[in-house]
Write a structure and sequence with these properties.
Number of domains: 3
Helix content: 25-40%
Bound molecules: adenosine-5'-triphosphate, magnesium ion
CATH topology of the largest domain: Heat Shock Protein 90
Strand order of the largest sheet: 4-3-5-2-1-6-7
Oligomer: single chain
Structural class: alpha+beta
Radius of gyration: 28 Å
CATH superfamily of the largest domain: Histidine kinase-like ATPase, C-terminal domain
Distance between the termini: 76 Å
Number of strands: 15
């Protein structure tokens, strides 16, 4: 409890026009503002969201219409209140909101007139409007009951719908300024802005679009998901196993993706997957909160000894991080949902895991061309051992993605902890000094993999890996071909031919 006496006070309500004008500068861009409105639609269980950009010079407007659960008049009035809900309040696990601000701050960062029309199931359509010009001339928070003049279409649509909500932005001073409808430059800028919204929505909500839980249309055209991990591409990224990191009451899921080298993509694939910012700037973490992308193309100031920077060598590394909405404060989530900083407690663990992904990505990048087309991706991941730096020291780890290791791990899912501790034991006790001494002494004498072992044994090992790959859904021929890039089987092309 505060020690300050609360029995004497002034009441100082904020001045509406001054406060709203300041809130406009929170720093939204048009795409992030649209995404914030879509968050609300998804949180309201919408299945279809229509974004409509209407060009008419200074009379241009934007409508975001959803078929979510809608709001009663009373709820709508409260939703329009800046700070409609306390950020400390617990939220349902699928809620994308936190601050009770987004609808207002995102909208008014783009327009001077925000009109929301809503209809709950079995209820009436109601509307409320914030108009900054009205606020500028009034001492109190006047929320208008009338819809804005451009909202007629949305109103009619909602009347015909069972339930839903429309957010209508007009007087788009930030986007349009005072240009006339005939102004070609302004119209081009408007269209460019629409393209940026399209890109941002396709990426931010790609997981909702992929699992078809929601469809989003932009000027009547369905937005297709843009998957940063090249899910639908002909050449798949290779992945590290999913790691779950417990964190206070919450948890974080980590998975690394190493994208295929340029040489294994055609020009079109290469361009398409470079992303809005281009290959090098798209590397790093992709942080999702309840499937919704918050931050991407960012190493989150992790790295040893200095924070990692965007470096071309690591451009094939992209890491998916899933967080839940019960640790927002620890992640320093901001109102725009565009900042998320890892809590101090898990930074080391994240750095260790990311280091491995980076090392693999670097080796795929470095082996360009040398191993020919379409095999490069597997090559780096299908090495039994990888070497990485941990706490400034080099360590050697067993690659759990190697198909032979995977075959064992997947065969005994209930023994995963035991198997992992056995692998860890091997990793932690690699006799590096001994190997170093031995190689120094007898430089040409060390055995190559499988030397002195019967061919029948090697072939049996190869077959086991093929069987495993077949079980994961790969056809037999492809599985056998895959062996050509799995170390150490790649040393025995003739034996592979005989399989
Ligand atoms: N499209 C919608 N359908 C139904 N309810 C909505 C819709 N948009 C907003 N709301 C209601 O209005 C409230 C306020 O929305 P607003 O975006 O301002 O805050 P929030 O989503 O709670 O938190 P945040 O500031 O993190 O976005 C929401 O909590 C929700 O109850
Ligand atoms: Mg919101």
């Amino acid at each position: 409890m505060s020690q300050v006496s609360s029995s004497k006070f002034d009441i100082v309500p904020p001045e509406p026009a001054a406060l709203i004008e300041s809130l406009r500068s929170v720093g939204y861009s048009l795409p992030t503002a649209v995404a914030d409105i879509i968050d609300n639609s998804i949180a309201a269980d919408a299945r279809n969201i229509h974004i409509h950009f209407h060009w008419a010079g200074t009379n241009s407007y934007v409508v975001i219409l959803d078929d979510g659960r809608g709001m009663s008049e009373e709820k709508l009035r409260n939703a329009m209140r800046p700070g409609s809900r306390n950020p400390l309040q617990e939220r349902s696990p699928s809620d994308l909101g936190r601050f009770g601000l987004g609808l207002k701050t995102a909208s008014l960062s783009q327009c001077r007139n925000l009109c929301v029309i809503s209809k709950p199931a079995d209820g009436e359509v109601s509307s409320r409007t914030w108009d900054l010009d009205v606020l500028a001339n009034s001492p109190d928070w006047r929320l208008l009951l009338e819809p804005s003049p451009v909202a007629g279409d949305a109103l009619q649509k909602l009347k015909r719908m069972k339930n839903g909500t429309a957010v209508v932005w007009s007087q788009l001073d930030r986007l349009i300024g005072t240009q006339e409808a005939g102004d070609a430059v302004a119209h081009t800028r408007f269209n460019d802005a629409i393209d940026r919204v399209l890109e941002h929505v396709a990426l931010t909500f790609h997981r909702f679009l992929e699992d078809r839980s929601v469809k989003i249309y932009l000027n009547e055209k369905a937005i297709l998901p843009w998957n940063p991990f090249m899910k639908a591409a002909p050449v798949a990224a290779s992945t590290t196993p999913e790691e779950v990191i417990p964190f206070s009451k919450s948890k974080i899921t980590f998975q690394g993706f190493i994208l295929p080298h340029k040489d294994s993509l055609n020009d079109d694939e290469f361009r398409r997957h470079s992303g809005p910012r281009g290959w090098t700037a798209q590397q790093g973490f992709y942080v999702y909160r309840n499937k919704r992308l918050l931050v991407y193309g960012d190493w989150l100031r992790l790295g040893r000894p200095a924070p990692w920077t965007m470096d071309e060598h690591y451009r094939l590394a992209r890491i998916r991080l899933d967080i839940l909405n019960d640790a927002d404060a620890e992640w320093h989530l901001d109102v725009k949902k565009s900042i998320a900083r890892p809590p101090a407690l898990i930074r080391d663990r994240l750095t260790d895991l990311a280091e491995r992904v980076r090392a693999t990505a670097r080796s795929v990048f470095a082996h360009r061309g040398k191993y020919g087309r379409r095999t490069v991706t597997q090559l780096a991941t299908d090495r039994p051992w990888t070497s990485t730096i941990r706490e400034n020291r080099r360590v050697y780890s067993i690659n759990c993605n190697h198909p032979a290791i995977q075959a064992v791990l997947r065969s005994f899912p209930d023994k995963t902890p035991e198997l992992e501790s056995a692998l860890r034991l091997l990793e932690e006790t690699v006799p590096v000094e001994q190997i170093w001494l031995d190689t120094a002494e007898q430089s040409r004498d060390h055995a190559t993999p499988y030397s002195g072992i019967e061919f029948s044994v090697i072939k049996a090992d190869m077959r086991r890996v093929v069987e495993f790959l077949v079980k994961t859904g790969i056809n037999r021929k492809t599985a056998i071909e895959r062996l050509r890039s799995v170390e150490p089987f790649d040393r025995f092309p003739k034996l592979i031919n005989e399989l």
